[in-house]
# Entry
Amino acid sequence: MEHLIRGWDGEYVVVRYDRQANAWMFIAIHSTVLGNASGGSRMKVYDTPSDGLRDAQRLAAGMTYKWAGVDFPLGGGKGVIALSGPVDGKERDRLLERYGQLVDSMRGAFSTGADLGVGPELVKIIGRETTHVFGLRGAGDPGPYTALGVFTGIETVAAELFGSSDLTDRTVIVQGTGDVGLPLCKKLAGAGASLKIADINAERARGVAAELGAEAIEADAVYSEPCDIFAPCAVGGVLNAYTIPQLRCRAVVGSANNQLGETEDATRLHQRGILYTPDFIINSGGAIALCGMEALGMSDDYVVRKILSIRDMLKSIFDEAKQNDESPLAAAERRARRVLERGPA
Ligand code: PHE
# Structure
């Protein structure tokens, strides 16, 4: 872990080993250039604690770009509770309380909220120990707001590629039916898309598909199954040297953080002619809603308008990328870096 921390381009990492649960807690603060760090907390079983640390660092950097992308006066940070095995019930709740105490000890240098494995209900448990949590007042569950941003992005991409934002009969594969995937599926079904749904929990995928009149597909079929748009809404790293050659979609538009295995994967997608919407832009809806309403005093209306403006942001990113014959990621990162160089507005 030493070389991960030394070699990182972020600011610092807070580490706590939790003996009771044999779990590690990492709070990675990537950049406070624009303001105090804010980002979700994720809880997951990792093969090694170092994998959890690496995830926290990469996700924290993603948050720096996310805040810069929407030009909010917040910095990039992320919390990871790296489990050695599944926890449940009281044991899990106590662990989250201890995590809440760790967040609280940072006295506002990091504020947090929901992420993979820490749904809105579990955020409440963290919130027993600290006020530095988002999602308990105002915005509530960020999932539907993130889904709204992704849906808008899918329409924008459809307009870009097919000349119309109408999704009727457009085939969309949604990977993951969690806090974002589920509301996204509902919106897509409502818009008449031909929907294919996958989840590592196959039974859950079948249930959601039956409810929405969609098709459930095998979890590992998502890459090779033909579709117009692939929406990864679960774990990160799903676009990599192994999966990209299999893809039979025209675009990737999903909510997962850190979708690319490595930066070069953006170029791999570009070379295959697959339009990639940078994750930190497309999935910013939840962050906009949570921190916009609960930290920056924005109204629900304003926040929704801001989320819908992801459309214009994407359009200008696509235009810039086209002009430079580069991947949209390169254009989006350049935009974010401009904001970071300028500093808080
Ligand atoms: N975890 C979500 C994200 O990455 C939502 C979130 C944003 C939670 C900011 C807390 C703070 O966007």
Observations:
- The first helix runs from residue 2 to 6.
- The pocket of phenylalanine is lined by residues 38-40, 112-115, 134, 142, 257, 283, 286-287, 290-291 (CB under 6 Å).
- The radius of gyration is 19 Å.
